[in-house]
């Protein structure tokens, strides 16, 4: 297995400082008015880098990542803690493509299965382009609420996404820290903690 998936780490790693001012959780509710939410849904060109810590059953670890969104297409690069690329995922013209070191390129229309079979852990890749913007996928049932600490919580497609930090970029509220959780049918808890740094193109 690749180094990335053998390095078991503490799930909640220290959140890195952000060069842009971040909003406290208690202020999030006022940030997401209808006008800003519409602008977020229209945001289609951006770059997000950061860290993801994952735990699924007895499997856990962390990785650095770079997500680039260009219209409906995107690329996702995963790097091990030493900086070496471990996986390169792309979505182009409705098809997913996964490249791994010393392996051929694999194609699929089901990215979750392709991701799990090759990397050993699950992630809602097909939904992330929306969820990392702090908004639900359109035409799919969802629920948005706020907890006692003011954190914005999105529930959709059996996933719970908690946004604990938000930064303002070009007047838009964009998550800088988020936790994704899912309880599988096999009663296995999947948790992904993401720290994000934004660059709008």
User: Into which percentage range does the β-strand content fall?
Assistant: over 45%
User: In this structure, how is the largest beta sheet organized?
Assistant: 12 strands, antiparallel
| Count of extended strands | 12
**What is the count of helical runs?**
4
Please provide a written account of the structure.
With 201 residues, this protein is mostly beta strands. The protein contains four helices and twelve strands; from the N terminus they run βααββββββααβββββ. It has helices spanning 28-31, 34-42, 111-119, 125-131; strands at 22-23, 45-56, 59-70, 73-79, 85-92, 95-99, 106-108, 142-146, 152-156, 159-169, 172-183, 189-200. Strands 1, 2, 3, 4, 5, 6, 7, 8, 9, 10, 11 and 12 form a twelve-stranded antiparallel beta sheet that branches. A hairpin with a 2-residue loop joins β9 and β10 (159-169). It is globular, with a radius of gyration of 16 Å.
List keywords for this structure.
12 strands, mainly beta, 4 helices, single chain, 201 residues
């Amino acid at each position: 297995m690749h180094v990335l998936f053998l390095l078991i780490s503490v799930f909640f790693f220290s959140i890195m400082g952000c060069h842009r001012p971040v909003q406290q959780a208690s202020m999030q509710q006022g940030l997401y008015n209808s006008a800003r939410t519409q602008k977020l849904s229209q945001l289609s060109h951006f770059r997000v880098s950061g860290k993801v810590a994952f735990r699924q059953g007895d499997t856990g670890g962390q990785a650095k990542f770079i997500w680039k969104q260009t219209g409906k297409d995107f690329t996702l690069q995963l790097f091990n803690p030493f900086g070496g690329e471990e996986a390169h995922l792309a979505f182009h013209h409705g098809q997913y493509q996964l490249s791994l070191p010393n392996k051929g390129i694999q194609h699929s229309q089901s990215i979750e299965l392709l991701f799990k079979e090759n990397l050993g852990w699950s992630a809602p890749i097909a939904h992330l382009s929306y969820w990392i913007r702090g908004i639900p996928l359109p035409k799919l049932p969802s629920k948005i609420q706020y907890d006692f600490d003011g954190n914005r919580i999105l529930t959709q497609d059996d996933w719970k996404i908690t946004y604990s930090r938000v930064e303002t970029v070009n007047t838009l509220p964009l998550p800088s820290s988020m936790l994704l959780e899912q309880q599988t049918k096999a009663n296995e808890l999947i948790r992904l903690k993401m720290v994000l740094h934004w660059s709008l193109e």
